[in-house]
Amino acid sequence: MVVTAGGSDNIIHRMAMDDPVPWYKKPNLRGLYWLLFPTTIGIEMTSGFDSQIINAVQIVPAWKEYFHHPSGGYQGILASSLPLGSCIGLPFIPYVNDTFGRRWCIIFGSTLMIIGSIIQAFSINGMPSFPSLDTPLTLSGVMYIISRAIIGFGLPFAIVAGSCLIGELGYPKERPILTSLFNACYFIGAIVAAGITFGTQTIPSNWSWRIPSLLQMAPSLLQVCFVFFLPESPRFLISKDRHEEAFAILVKYHAEGDPDSEFVKAEMAEIKETLALEAENSKQSWMDMVRTAGMRRRVVIGSLLGVFTQLSGNVVISYYLGDVLKLIGYTEPSFQAKFNLGNQCWNLVSAITIALVVMRFKRRTMYLAAIVSILVVYVSWTICTARFVSTKSTVAAKFSLFWIYAYSPAYNLGFNALTYTYLIELFPFTQRARGIAIFQFFGKAAQFFGTNVNPVGTKAIGWKWLLVYCCWICVEAVLIYFLWPETSNRSLEELAFLFEDDHLKERTTRVVEKTLQADEVEHATETVPGTKYV
Fold first, then answer.
1. Which of 280, 375, 425, 441 is 20 to 30 Å from 9 by CA-CA measure?
2. CA-to-CA distance for 179 and 402, rounded, in angstroms?
3. Which pLDDT value is given to residue 115?
4. Whether the Cβ atoms of residue 349 and residue 412 lie closer than 8 Å to each other
């Protein structure tokens, strides 16, 4: 059954959309958005940086030599140790995020990523610790795996808190664009990593891979330096009974300093009432995620979304592009590095373009268009690759390159542009951190699975491994069609009871209407001196 966001009057959303003044003409809001980039929106740069670091360094001869030419299972664990670390850390994220606030959670995660990057860059060689199936695992390999696990442990703390903070600070009119740009920043990190590794791969020493590994901490340094210039989430402050601080933040950024703003008064009333209703039905525990039918459905959708974002064929390109290019005859490291850099630049262009138009389309429509497009790309890519393997046709090889490039806009249309926009809209405030943590858990578990299985599958059956993804993507399309609800054109508070009884939505709406009516009466009293209202 398809669910749409309805049942209560979307007052806050309409008021925001009716605001004729664009964000760039509002000094306070403009300053907030500029500050969001290095502190929150840029967090995903670390994810993108990592995907290309582990992808690009596998092309670097010095890295291969230092780690004894890893392949198969050893190659897989070097890549998958990061998502493994993420899975270990995810259960603790809601407690840090909801106890100490979004900003401290970002600081905690970013600090861990800085520590992990330093260990990764200075992995030292030594005698084999124990053998793997394919390659002896040296001390350097152990350090590399542990360092990436530390980075992985810290990354979701920053991602969950950052995505929450963007959605909870942004003006409702621009919120979907901001959360879409959050994921698009993945490709900024990927481009920087690919470019740095391309430039350092000719260095005749281990610094050819140590330099990019060390620079992986750059986005985290930005967050540590600037995050406390950013205000805390008003919703978090209200949940801690710090109402005056929350109101001051909303006044400053959503009303440009006007304490009499009708919009801010209505927004404040809606947030307070919604959080109170959520508190009545929540015990702030993991059991809340399965206590009601509505929350169980949210968990199912969030879990599937986590799996789909990692197992829709993207890990093959992000982590093992070199192996994919070898299948179609492109074995030269220089070509692979250039192609990788070009692909990441194209990824960024398509991701930002889609993020800027995300407000024009419904969420379900974009997800369905994305998964169908991905299926078309994968089937076509598989056919071209199979054709090259059987005939060595250069035309088939070039078409394979085209389909690899075509994959990014297909994927970005839904799984990049909408992921955090959708998650923030799907889960209510009291369970938002847990909901995004569940998404991250299943996403990182799927990434761990994919990064381990892909090199083994490619090595065992070659191009036929792509057929597995073609079949799986069909399953994804069916699940999205039947399970994904529509969430567009509503405020976060209006979506808090998406799957619940309408009377909860109506109760919040009545509070907002009373606030607006009281404000109208107050203005009328001021306009007509001496008039009394009983």
1. 280
2. 29
3. 95
4. no
Name the 3-class secondary structure at 286: coil
Q: Where are the domains of the chain?
A: 11-270+289-521
**Mean pLDDT for all residues in the chain:** 83
CA 389 to chain CA centroid, nearest Å = 36
Distances (CA, A) of 389 to 8, 72, 143, 301: 57, 21, 38, 38
Neighbouring residues of 489: CB distance < 8 A, sequence distance ≥ 6: 5, 10, 13
State the amino acid at position 339 in one-letter form.
F
Dist. CA 453–CA 310, nearest whole Å: 13
- For 49, phi then psi, to 5°, come to -60, -45
76-111 core/surface letters (b: 16 or more CB in 10 A; e: else): bbbbbbbbbbbbebbeebbebbbeebbbbbbbbbbb
Q: Which of 211, 216, 197 is nearest to 60 (CA)?
A: 197
Contact between 276 and 430 under an 8 Å Cβ cutoff? The reply is no
- Rounded percentage of the chain residues whose pLDDT exceeds 90: 31
Does 362 score more than 70 pLDDT? yes
Token digits of residue 302: 């969030």
Estimate to the nearest angstrom the gap between the alpha carbon of 68 and the chain centroid: 34
Helical ranges in 281-332 per DSSP H: 288-291, 293-310, 314-327
φ and ψ at residue 136, rounded to 5 degrees: -65, 130
CATH for 11-270+289-521 is 1.20.1250.20
More confident: 412 or 78: 412
Q: Measuring CA to CA, how many Å separate 521 from each of 259, 355, 425, 515, 526?
A: 17, 41, 33, 10, 9
- Residue 197 CA to residue 48 CA, distance in Å, equals 13
- Which residues pair with residue 137 across a beta bridge? 130
pLDDT digit string, tens, across residues 104-148? 999 999 999 999 999 988 887 644 444 444 545 566 678 888 998
Residue 242 main-chain phi, psi, to 5 deg: -105, 65
Closest CA to 146 of 72, 81, 83: 81
Contact by Cβ (8 Å): 216, 53: yes
Residue in the structure block whose two tokens are 């198969």: 72
What pLDDT does residue 533 have? 34
473: tokens are 């993507």
Place of tokens 């004894």: 68
Residue-wise pLDDT tens digits, 257-306: 999 888 898 889 888 888 887 777 666 677 878 888 888 999 999 999 99
The amino acid present at 43, given as its one-letter code, is: I
List the alpha helices (DSSP H) in 170-227: 175-184, 186-200, 207-215, 218-226
What are the tokens at 394?
Answer: 């250069």
Is residue 476 over pLDDT 70? yes
pTM attached to this predicted model: 0.78
Residue 531 has pLDDT above 60, yes or no: no
